[in-house]
Amino acid sequence: MRPRDLAVIAAVLLVGAFAIADAVRGNHHEPARIGPSDTKATTTPNPVQGVPEPPQGLPASGTVVFTDGETCSLREFDVASGTELPHRGRIRTNCFFTAPILSGRVAIGLGGVSAIRPFQLMNLLAPKRDLGRHRALLGTIEWASDGQTVSWCTTATRGFLTSFEAPPTRVPGCPAAFTADDEPVFVRKHSLVIAGRAVAHGTTPIEWVSAPPNAPWIVIIRGNVAERWSGDRRLGRTVLPGWIRRARPTISTNGCEIGARRGLAVFVLPLDCSREPPRSYPGREIAWSPDNHWVAVAARHSIDFYHEDDLGPLARWRLVASHLAWVAE
Fold first, then answer.
1. Which residue range(s) make up the domain with 201?
2. By the 8 A CB rule, do 115 and 135 touch?
3. What is the C-alpha end-to-end distance of the chain, expressed in Å?
4. 246 pLDDT higher than 60
5. CB-CB contact of 63 with 287 (8 Å)
């Protein structure tokens, strides 16, 4: 055999050896090309690491007002769009605030270490935002549902009231709530006093009072029993768990449910006028929407939104709230 033939045979054998090695390894093939019809559409981009997702809008109205869990500054977001409303300058608080469902007015805590602390009344919608500064036991600040009247107390028997058109006036006691027509409600042990008239009589002391913004009745708690009253007529009665006496309840917008924190969850307890079952949400505070179909819950690392027909959250804002309220636009 001639040398040239031997070279040809050697080259053929070498190419065959490389082909067999490629087949065994299987990792030197050119990747398949994907045409337009083979690609998968992506509706939600991957979040950028370290950048929080923007709040998601919801099919609901109103705004959520809350104190930031890290800075205690007051913030406000439109629920439908998920956008933050731009208030002039940072509104600093001591993490406490309270607001009526209407009017854009708020009362914010300003600090202090004593039981009676300074607070400021503000109108978030007006060019002149400051409505005055006062001192109060912060847990005693109460609003009429339309936001036109507010009261506060410095002792259990020393209260003040203002409708913003005149300086605050002294009232005979500490208002616990307001009726639908802006009458202050006082507690006198076993009864309520409205416009000088004693109503809602009972045999045990009244420990908690609330006037729902969209209901023509007042809800009181005696021990672990909730009662709904309209004038001197009791409309209904509900036995609640015994731990409710150690809680600070929140009333629903329609006045048929009570929310209260226990441990790491907020429990929603139906009253006699509700058709909803009891339920609970992870978190520390709850606020109902103005139409009562939604709730916002201040959870550990977010504000979670639930609809009355769903068990899981429909939106989760990566914002930490120490205290929150849901108000009408």
1. 53-327
2. no
3. 99
4. yes
5. no
